[in-house]
Design a protein that fits this description.
Elements lengths: L9 E4 L1 H5 L9 H14 L3 E5 L5 H13 L4 E7 L2 H11 L5 E8 L2 H4 L6 H18 L3 E6 L6 H14 L3 E6 L6 H14 L7 E6 L6 H11 L3 E4 L13 H10 L15 H12 L20 H9 L19 E3 L5 H10 L6 H17 L3 E2 H11 L7 E9 L6 E8 L2 E8 L3 H12 L5 E9 L8 E9 L2 E9 L2 H24 L14
Parallel strand pairs: 1-2, 1-8, 2-3, 3-4, 4-5, 5-6, 6-7, 7-8
Antiparallel strand pairs: 9-10, 11-12, 12-13, 14-15, 15-16
The chain binds 3-methyl-2-oxobutanoic acid (KIV) and zinc ion.
Length: about 525
């Protein structure tokens, strides 16, 4: 997979590394495995599964993803030192196709951090790439902040990395500073000037600070790069990374002017986009290209008229191309278990019998309350049911009073088997209910994000709620869905608290503390 033909581009997904390291986007072990398997199934060529030296949790996730990988190359990140590289190799070596990715910041600002002069850094690059290549024959090297590195020094370091055995040279625009013409010129310059450049694959890794990540990545490909590094939904720090769905669909829809193919099954895009949004707690903006709720909605009168006559009037790609089925009414409250199973299978969801029984119960409850149950309602139900976090804290009863006369909540919860009660007030019904949770289960975690979105249209729609809590720098996300927004909110909050308890146990057992970021010089 590392040597693409001239007419194809390698898709390198870093949702689980650059995406997951963005503050707040932390995923659990199981969630990482699930996302990795979806990436593999959709045809991603290289999955950057994590940063193994960062924590026990990262190491275990990369190892397990490596063991389970089917078609994708599994890559781990390491800074430019032997300890990081060895740890990375320990994790990725289980993969059928492992890759070590090692990097160092080469721009003047980044060279100052480990306090290396140009010669010392050049030597470090030679030694670390050589060390990595002695372990694995698929090596990616990145000069971090390449777009702000002096051109002659960039050429010199790239040449050293190639001579030391790197097989892929990645050119990161770490701070999202470049623009399309410059992005292309940089790749062209490296291909022209660096001896051995034609023997390796050049990659482009763009951040979206100026909103140009997709354009910069495609410009780099036009200039000769043959690997695009990207994340699902453009997840990533600050304004995020290049969005996988954008570059892949641009290459597909405009193949006439950008004749490079990918192996991605684009019909799997919507499903993975929804999953990444749910597990990271980073909702997709409504008008986001390709995967936003409005991306295929043609609501204005003029557009609708045109669409009825010929869909192509305003549609450059079909919703089905990205896996967006027309919203369909699923079933009513009289539908049986077999019908539910077959509908879920149609949506690509396979459940074991016990999971199906749980989802069926929830479906019946929902169908009693809600007139119409749609595909998206079912997807939300399945997601609520498939979380394996133990419920040490659970909501039993909740009564909320709200309106102009004031807001209060009366709550019964089960905490480690004991029934606990609270009656609280607050600034709005959700605040009152959250105060009740805090009274019953005092904790120091800070609420960093509270986000509500409607699953479908209508006032009886389910609300999906994401809650992000931060306890001593450890961030967890909880989510839930219910037609009652306050109930969904409390359940999402409680879900996050249960995850905090799991984290506390792991930390007490000496595991899963992320102390290193790739930004720490090493
Ligand atoms: O943006 C960046 O420079 C990175 C590197 C670690 C490749 O993510
Ligand atoms: Zn990055």
């Amino acid at each position: 997979m590392t040597n693409p033909s001239q007419d194809s581009v390698i898709i390198f997904d870093t949702t689980l590394r650059d995406g997951e390291q963005s503050p707040g986007a932390t995923m659990t072990h199981e969630e990482k495995l699930e996302i990795a398997s979806l990436l593999d199934e959709m045809g991603v060529d290289v999955i950057e599964a994590g940063f193994p030296i960062a924590s026990e949790g990262d190491f275990n996730a990369v190892s397990e993803i490596s063991k389970r990988s089917k078609n994708s190359v599994i890559c781990g990140l390491s800074r430019a030192n032997f300890k990081d590289i060895d740890r990375c190799w320990e994790a990725v070596k289980h993969a059928a196709q492992p890759r070590i990715h090692t990097f160092i910041g080469t721009s003047p600002l980044h060279r100052a951090i480990p306090n290396l002069d140009k010669d010392q850094m050049a030597e470090r690059i030679h030694d670390t790439v050589t060390h990595a290549r002695n372990l694995c024959d698929n090596i990616q090297w990145s000069p971090m902040d390449a777009t702000r590195t002096e051109h002659d020094y960039l050429c010199r370091t790239v040449e050293i990395a190639i001579r030391a055995g790197a097989t892929t040279i990645n050119i990161p625009d770490t701070v999202g500073y470049t623009a399309p013409r410059e992005s292309a010129d940089l790749i062209r310059m490296l291909l022209e000037k660096v001896p051995g450049a034609d023997e390796v694959v050049f990659a482009t890794h763009c951040h979206n600070d100026l909103g140009m990540a997709t354009a910069n990545s495609l410009a780099a490909v036009e200039a000769g790069a043959r690997q695009i590094e990207c994340t699902i939904n453009g997840l990533g720090e600050r304004a995020g990374n290049t969005a996988l769905e954008e570059v892949v669909m641009a290459l597909k829809v405009r193949n006439d002017i950008m004749p490079w193919g990918t192996r991605i099954d684009t019909t799997k895009i919507m499903n993975i986009s929804r999953r990444v949004a749910a597990v990271s707690g980073f909702a997709v903006q409504f008008n986001k290209a390709i995967v936003g709720k409005n991306a295929f909605a043609h609501e204005s009168g003029i557009h609708q008229d045109g669409m009825l006559k010929n869909a192509e009037t305003f549609e450059i790609m079909r919703p089905e191309d990205v896996g967006l089925a027309a919203t369909s009414l699923v079933m009513g409250k009289h539908s049986g278990r077999a019908a539910l199973r077959s509908k879920l299978n149609e949506l690509g969801i396979e459940l074991a019998d016990n999971q199906l029984a749980d989802v069926f119960l929830r479906f019946k409850e929902l169908a009693d309350r809600k007139k119409e149950v749609y595909d998206d309602d079912l997807i939300a139900l399945v997601r609520v049911s498939d979380d394996a976090t133990p419920d040490r804290i659970a909501l039993k009863e909740l009564t909320v009073i709200c309106g102009t006369g004031g807001q209060s909540a009366e709550m019964v919860m089960i905490v480690d088997g004991t029934e606990c009660r609270a009656k609280t007030t607050g600034d709005g019904p959700v605040d009152a209910a959250f105060n009740a949770v805090k009274e019953i289960f005092p904790h120091s975690a800070k609420l960093e994000l509270y986000q509500v979105s409607a699953v479908t249209e209508g006032t009886d729609a389910q609300a999906t709620v994401s809650v992000r809590l931060n306890e001593d720098g450890r961030i967890v996300t909880g989510s839930n869905a219910d037609t009652d927004t306050v109930v969904a909110s409390v359940k999402a909050y409680v879900h996050a608290l249960n995850r905090i308890l799991v984290r506390r146990d792991k930390v007490a057992a000496g595991g899963d503390t992320r102390e290193i970021s790739y930004k720490d010089a090493g």
